[in-house]
Amino acid sequence: MLTGEFYNTIDDKGRILIPSRLRSALEGEALYVTRGLETCLWLMLPSDFEKLKNTIISGPGSMFDRKLRILQRGMIAPAQLCEFDKVGRINIPQSLRESVGLSAKEESVLLGTGNYLELWNRAEYERYLSQSMGEFLDAAQSLSEMIREDL
Fold first, then answer.
1. Residue 98 belongs to what domain range?
2. Could you give the number of structural domains in the chain?
3. CA–CA dist 5, 77 (Å, integer)
4. What is the DSSP letter of 104?
5. Are the C-beta atoms of residues 97 and 16 closer than 8 Å to each other?
């Protein structure tokens, strides 16, 4: 399980260090990097990315489904397999960095969200947290109600 909130910077060459605690929970030597939802990148194990890709592109008539084509273009097409270097960094492609406002030498946030990672520009992430607090509280209330129903 990938969890935690890590603050880091992207170096001049577009690389970011994946903390050893996260690397030890990952299998393999590479991650797929693609656009996520909101304004972040998703970093996924190849096996998890394959599941996502198959869900989006393998359905009957997916080429003709407008919503699936949007997901194909927004998540599958820009995805790139990025290998770890000897010290545990991966190179985040410039086009993906630019698509979510990640710049070299600027602080970023790497979030472990269960089975994938999210990479955010720190200022954008803090803005998102602030703006979504109401929805977070609503979601917590809904979870509370679901838990009570299970009792």
1. 2-122
2. 1
3. 28
4. B
5. no
CATH number at residue 74: 3.40.1550.20
pLDDT score at 148:
86
128-7-116-12 Cα dihedral, nearest 10 degrees: 100
Q: pLDDT, tens digit, for every residue of 41-53? A: 999 999 999 999 9
Confidence of residue 81 (pLDDT cuts 50, 70, 90): very high
C-alpha 53/C-alpha 44 separation (Å) is 11
From 89, 93, 61, 64, select the one nearest 77 (Cα to Cα): 93
Element (H, E) at 14: none
Q: Which residues of 43-80 are buried (b: 16+ CB within 10 A; e: fewer)?
A: bbbeeebeebbeebeeeeeeeeeeebeebbeebbeebe
Three-state secondary structure call for residue 33: strand
The pTM assigned to this predicted structure is: 0.91
Specify if 144 maps to a domain: no
- 149 within domain boundaries: no
